Amino acid sequence: MTDPEQLRLRDYRPVPSLTAPSHRVERACAPAIDAHTHLGRWLTGTWAVPSTARLAELMDPCNVAAAVNMDGRWGAELEANLDRYDRSYPGRFATFCHVDWAAPCDPPPTGRWCISALNLPAEVLRLVYSENARALIPGLQR
């Protein structure tokens, strides 16, 4: 046994002590929403998914009904994400935007943000948002 005081992280080789049967899940048993995906290009300069058609095609056999893209950013980058995902595949993608904290706020914030301005499909809103959020979403039915 190696002396723990002398063990360097690069030399550490843990031995698993738990074993459990594994199985591969090819398809969700119920329609699923991937609520946190990074599909944009703002971190790397290239789109995370080279082919949106292939991604949408792959979602069906896996029973993924929709995906939430966390990489919307703002301005032209947001529009590019919306064009590439949300507008090309309505109801399949919901792109979240980021806040540009450096931009001036005009008009000043009122303390309430109207999520209905995002024009997300009602089905996505119903699945993603809790009962408490219904007050912020005009016309949202359960």
Plain-language structure description:
The structure is a single chain. The chain is of the alpha/beta class. The protein has a domain at about 30-100 and about 110-130. It is built from three helices and three strands. It has helices at about 50-60, 75-85, 120-130, and strands spanning about 30-35, 65-70, 95. Strands 1-2-3 form a three-stranded parallel β-sheet. Strand 1 (about 30-35), helix 1 and strand 2 form a beta-alpha-beta unit. The longest helix has 12 residues, at about 75-85.
Features:
three-stranded parallel β-sheet; 3 helices; 142 residues; 3 strands; single chain; alpha/beta
Structure summarized in a few sentences:
With 142 residues, the protein is α/β, with parallel strands linked by helices.
User: What is the H/E string?
Assistant: EHEHEH
- Strands of the largest sheet, in order across it? 1-2-3
What is the strand content? 5-15%
Mean pLDDT: 79
Number of helical regions: 3
Helix content: 10-25%
Structural class based on helices, strands and sheet pairing = alpha/beta
Q: Stretches where pLDDT falls below 50 for ≥5 residues?
A: 108-117, 130-134
Euclidean distance between termini CA atoms? 60 Å
Q: Over all CA atoms, what is the radius of gyration? A: 21 Å
Name the overall outline: flat
Fold blueprint:
Elements: E1 32-37, H1 52-62, E2 64-69, H2 75-86, E3 93-95, H3 122-128
Parallel strand pairs: 1-2, 2-3
